[in-house]
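Internal tracking record. Fields below are filled automatically when a chain is submitted to the structure queue. Please do not edit lines marked as system-generated. If the sequence contains nonstandard residues, flag them in the REMARKS field before resubmitting.
Queue: standard
Priority: normal
Entity type: single polypeptide chain
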Amino acid sequence: MTGTVELSTGVALVCLGAAAWPAGGGWHSGIRRARLVLADGVAVGTGPPALRRMTDGLRRVRGRLRPEWWSFAAGLLLAVLGSSVLPVVVGAAGVPVLRRARLAGRARRAREHRQDGVIALCGALAGEVRAGRQPGEALLCAAHDSGGLGEPQAAVLAAARFGGDVPGALVAAARQPGAEGLRGLAACWRVAVDQGAGLAAGLDRLEGALRAERDQRADLRAQLAGARATAVMLAGLPVLGLLLGFALGADPLHVLLHTGPGLGCLLVGGVLEGLGVWWVTRIVRSAEAVS
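SYSTEM-GENERATED OUTPUT FOLLOWS
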């Protein structure tokens, strides 16, 4: 009986290998065919329609659920484990703080993206001017390629197309966070038009200055990585302490949430934790502001 089972298993493996062997489409196509064989002709990952709808629904919910709401979820979990409403209150209080941090990170990324767009705009505009285009026509071409003007792009391009106040439109566009380099572009444009100076040379110098400033910020961010890691470590120490307490067989949630000394330790520790994270964050932001 055992020999029959082994023989059947060997035959199944041989058939599976024949299905997976690349017959001209490569190894990956053979693997796909083998998966189809194992799934009885249904592509793996699709599943029944009901399962696909449920998966799509969960994916949409996950996409709409903001990361800050995990604070409330963690508080709810700790409230159930510790039989106390206090973690829910703390988790709900952490939602606006985390939302503010998320929005600040999004604004920072948008600002850096806009700074890169301004640098690309200066380089593309200098190349178009050297190619023999007039400044207005060169700006039209460079703006579409780089996208460094942001939302006021239509107003700037309209001024360039119809002979309007291009430097004024650039100064207005420079009010966007991260688009401050457009003020330098407006100055180069004004000098080139009023005094007949070379626009391409000025744009090259402006691009070099903006790139040097971006590289300096990147170096500073790399140097401040240690301070950020310290802030993350401070934020994670309480969780590590709770896990260590559970590992030792204690009940730290009961002590912290249902006893007087535990509540006092929780209050003092929370205040010190917040002060430590705030202090490290303040140091990082001050260094970035000075740069």
